[in-house]
Amino acid sequence: MELNGLRVSRETQERLRHFAALFQKWAKAINLVAPSTLEDLWDRHIADSSQVFQIHPQPISWVDLGSGGGFPGVITAIFLAELQDGWVHLVESNHKKAAFLRTALRETNARGSVHILRIEDAYPEMGECDAISARALADLDGLLGYSAPWMLGKENCRGFFHKGRDYLREIDKARGRWEFDLLEHKSAVEQESVILEVSNLRRLV
């Protein structure tokens, strides 16, 4: 099996398929993603989310903000299971979604844990990390605000944020309040989308 041109092992493939089955089951009861995107689960959500790990395939500590239906946090945790190292801290304040995330991590033997917290309260509980991810959560300015406790003044912590076709406007807005280094990774799934890799975050105002 391949995702975005990357060969995926049989074990990881089985974990991803089990996650997809769980997701479809739970999505009938709680709103994990927009219902209109459920039919395209593999490309729209799973393959898209896998790009974060493909960009940075290291056994590191992640914080996934607003994990919701598990994208990209659970997908990253599934890939880390193959490395048998690294960890994803999934931050989700909604108790029903958190219950799904815990079930998904447990049943796929993924390397992650769920923290039922508001994002603003998460840093004191989990401390430092190597990377932050978020998808469909907020504009870039808002994401940098959420990520600031982990990233400000810390050269080794990077943010990986999925963004759609309007991402250039979001970058311009964010540069009004922040300085940061930026890499744009073109999406292999959505033609006009990117994953923004942010590092060396500094606050302007």
Low-confidence stretches: none
Largest sheet: 7 strands, mixed
* Shape assignment: globular
Strand residue content: 15-25%
Ends apart, CA distance between termini: 47 Å
| Structural classification | alpha/beta
Radius of gyration: 16 Å
- What's the average pLDDT? 92
How much helicity do the residues have?
Answer: 40-55%
Strand adjacency order, main sheet? 5-4-3-6-7-9-8
Please describe what this structure looks like:
- This protein is α/β, with parallel strands linked by helices and 205 residues long.
- Helices cover 40% and strands 23% of the residues.
- It has helices at 10-27, 41-55, 73-83, 95-108, 123-126, 140-151, 167-174, and strands spanning 2-3, 6-7, 61-65, 87-91, 112-115, 131-134, 158-163, 178-186, 194-203.
- The strands form 2 sheets. It has a 7-stranded mixed beta sheet with strand order 5-4-3-6-7-9-8, with helices on both faces. A two-stranded antiparallel ribbon has the order 1-2.
- Strand 6, helix 6 and strand 7 (158-163) form a beta-alpha-beta unit.
- Helix 1 runs antiparallel to helix 3, helix 1 (10-27) runs antiparallel to helix 4 (95-108) and helix 2 packs across helix 3 (73-83).
- The radius of gyration is 16 Å and the shape is globular.
- The model has no long low-confidence stretch (mean pLDDT 92).
- It catalyses: guanosine(527) in 16S rRNA + S-adenosyl-L-methionine = N(7)-methylguanosine(527) in 16S rRNA + S-adenosyl-L-homocysteine.
- It is found in: Cytoplasm.
- Keywords: Cytoplasm, Methyltransferase, rRNA processing, S-adenosyl-L-methionine, Transferase.
- This is Ribosomal RNA small subunit methyltransferase G.
- One of its GO terms (molecular function) is methyltransferase activity.
